[in-house]
UniProtKB/TrEMBL annotation:
SUPFAM superfamilies: Glucocorticoid receptor-like (DNA-binding domain). PROSITE patterns: ZF_THAP. InterPro entries: THAP_domain_protein (IPR052224), THAP_Znf (IPR006612). Coiled coil: none annotated. The lineage of its organism: Eukaryota, Metazoa, Chordata, Craniata, Vertebrata. Pfam families: THAP. This is THAP-type domain-containing protein.
């Protein structure tokens, strides 16, 4: 299973972006819902392998705005 960011429009992966940190989704529902809102993928359920890269975090907190870069 390659480590690829699951956010829409983000193709960062551990191999292509070794400087990024990849986080697995939290198990706690309230935090997990925030992540899912930020990821904004329709008809998609995260698996235990789903990861989100550090591009989507501001000051250690998940940002609801994905960076445009
Ligand atoms: Zn990402």
């Amino acid at each position: 299973m390659p480590a690829i960011c699951c956010a829409v429009g983000c193709n960062n992966s551990r191999t292509r972006n070794p400087g990024l940190i990849f986080y697995s989704l939290p198990t706690e529902k309230s935090r997990r819902d925030k992540w899912l809102a930020a990821i904004r993928r329709d008809h998609w359920a995260p698996t235990s392998h789903s990861l989100l890269c550090s591009e989507h975090f501001v000051s250690g907190k998940i940002s609801l705005q994905l960076r445009s870069s």
